[in-house]
Amino acid sequence: MSKPGTDTRHDVEGLQDLFAGRIVTNKSKLLHFTTDESFHEGPLPDALFQPRSTAEVVEIVKVCEAEKIPLIPYGAGTSLEGHTLASHGGIILDMTGLSEIIEVNAEDQDCRCQPGVTRERLNSYLRDTGLCFPIDPGADATIGGMVATSASGTNAVRYGTMKENVLALEAVLADGSVIRTGRRARKTAAGLDLTHLLIGSEGTLGVVTEVTLRLHGIPECTKALSCSFASTAQAIDAVIVIIQLAIPVAKIEFLDEKQVNACNQYCGVKEVEEPTLLIEFHGNETETHDQISRTTEIVEELGGRNFRWAESQQERNELWRYRYNALPAAKGLRPGCEVLITDVCVPISRLCECIVKCQKQIEAHDMLAPIVGHVGDGNFHAFIVVDTKDKKEMKKTGEVAEWMTSLAIEMNGTATGEHGIGIGKQEALIHEFGISTVKAMCRIKAAMDPHDILNPGKIYSPEIMSAYRG
To answer: What is the pLDDT of residue 468?
Structure first.
């Protein structure tokens, strides 16, 4: 296995005959895989392969294990911490060809699909069944990629994350064996919980080839509102009270005044440029009426104003278009610049303190960094707009991002609410859990993948992982 900083090239020519010339080594095609949605860059992969079946995944895993060639599972490429970069060289395993929706069990509200299915395609397929898969990370990610990073997003406050919505997995391990980690039952006490071990493992423990998902009924009634506040503290205090009173809102998103300004410019609208909440309610007419009544009372008591209601599908789409365009809107504030996205999550009682401290830190460093958040579960992001060609600005950006991560951990929160560790947050993982816990994770990785062929260099630093290689 090549170490970072040394030659990362591997001989893959011998694989061409095994896979009928389907191993792609064209450099112009491989260049696409040297960058992703993050600021990280990786070396040129040695090759690209798109399997068409679980059997082909087994075959290439066995070959790579025998030859000690790294294998990097790849989906839609929307991850944000360098998860899919070939940091040790090797073969990009493009899973988008495994894109079959195998079965839908409407009576049991579950389905089985292959990892290359995207969430939007799945929901389009499910529409006539009255069911949906509500996990929404923003991008049209693949289901396999969402499993790998334990994705969540805007609906997590009500429906949970991938951890709550995956019933079972089929995966190919580093030795080429195929395992199933569960069945369709809604609970089990049978053995070790391998399903949740693989969720969030970022392709380092196995290659997921099939996913059994929990589905949910499409709500009979859906309504949404936006409202603004004089201060961030008022807005977040309203969120805290709503959550503590267990009002089952489906979405509750926060945009600070800088983000509202950016969205106004990008979307061509004129919303009041104050800290804003966007809230959505799901249920039947009686349930949504009760949720709205209780939420409105809380919001008004805490200074909420400029209410805007959205009831029809078109009105809701327009309201959420405003939120879903937050990233390109922030980027548009400084043409020619890029956005570094932070991703921290804290206990709901510390949320207001954490956001306000981050805003003060941003102002103290004279940075442009709008804040948005899935605040119902304590998760928020700063979109730090930065000139990547300015080394001093990049250094300052990295320092502020690390400071935010440390702040969240000190508040008994996490370095990443939903983006994962990848390359970018390996030191933060140690800060969050301590070296003994991270070493325990490495021992599991080493036991399941002794030659470190599955997405090496991710989650655990090479220095720590090297002590546990076979």
So the answer is: 67
Q: Which residues, in sequence order, are bridge partners of residue 340?
A: 384
**Residues, the chain, total?**
470
* Below-70 pLDDT ranges, the chain: 1-7, 468-470
Residue among 171, 177, 178 at smallest CA distance from 212: 171
What pLDDT shows up at residue 4?
43
3-class SS letters over 218-286: CCCEEEEEEEECCCHHHHHHHHHHHHHCCCCCCEEEEECHHHHHHHHHHHCCCCCCCCEEEEEEEECHH
Q: What are phi and psi of 292, to 5 degrees?
A: -65, -45
Q: Which domains does the chain have, with CATH numbers?
A: 99-217 (3.30.465.10), 221-410 (3.40.462.40)
What is d(CA 114, CA 99) in angstroms, rounded to the nearest whole number?
Answer: 5
Confidence (pLDDT) at 362: 97
Cα–Cα distance for residue pair 263/273, rounded to 1 Å: 10
pLDDT reported for residue 1: 31
Distance CA 257, CA 42 (A): 36
